[in-house]
Amino acid sequence: QKEVEQNSGPLSVPEGAIASLNCTYSDRGSQSFFWYRQYSGKSPELIMSIYSNGDKEDGRFTAQLNKASQYVSLLIRDSQPSDSATYLCAAPEQGGKLIFGQGTELSVKP
Amino acid sequence: AAGVIQSPRHLIKEKRETATLKCYPIPRHDTVYWYQQGPGQDPQFLISFYEKMQSDKGSIPDRFSAQQFSDYHSELNMSSLELGDSALYFCASSFRQGAGDTQYFGPGTRLTVL
Predict the structure, then answer these.
(1) Beta-carbon separation of B100 and A41 below 8 A
(2) For a disulfide at B33, which of A25, A45, A47, B92, Cβ 3.0-4.6 Å?
(3) Which residues in chain B have Cβ-Cβ distances shorter than 8 Å to A88?
(4) What would you measure as the largest C-alpha separation in chain A, in angstroms?
């Protein structure tokens, strides 16, 4: 079974700063990756999906994928207190089920 | 836009009782996934259905069963409940196009077993 690894944090950044969240994966054949945001007691909410090497930007969020290094990251620019949540990195296995990392807790301080 | 619907949102049961969780996928989505998330843990895959047929099975206890109906809604049936079954149960749906289909999660059902 593939593995997805994240630093559990907590990661604390001041309001307005860039938050950088990192994820590594074990299966070199993985083709797609997803970042979900999860507030405490709530369901995972899709933030970004990325399939190709390089960067993908959506508003304040940028996902970066480096397949050679088996590394995917999420940058959050101009971090806001409302961004404080747990961020889950996920990769699908055969059949589509998602394998999640343990999540990184982000705290944005006003 | 329509989202995944789950019911009930909260459920309290006694040990050894049964529970039924329901999931209504996003319209035109053909695949449903069930995940279990314990406190402080990441979601763990239980079972999935594609076009009303079971497509994959994860770490789902034999006490649990599930199915997908003709209208694509799915139900997770849990019997002989144990204290350790207390968790958040999420349903996610997707439209199958190949590897890496985007899954959208429902709000979840919080199950508490006393």
Answers:
(1) no
(2) B92
(3) 42-43
(4) 42
User: CB-based contact (8 Å) between B61 and chain A?
Assistant: no
Q: Average the pLDDT over B73-88 and give the result.
A: 97
**What is the spatial distance between Cα B91 and Cα B104, in angstroms, rounded to a whole number?**
8
Distance CA B97, CA B114 (A): 41
Is A25 in CB contact (< 8 Å) with chain B? no
pLDDT category, B99, cuts 50, 70, 90? low
Residues B5/B21, Cβ–Cβ less than 8 Å:
no
Indicate yes or no: CB of A46 within 8 angstroms of CB of B101. Answer: no
| Interchain CB contact of A98 with B (< 8 Å) | yes
Q: Is the predicted pLDDT of residue A104 greater than 90, yes or no?
A: yes
Report yes or no: B75 at the A interface, CB cutoff 8 Å: no
Instruction: Count other Cβ atoms within 10 Å, centred on residue B48.
Output: 25
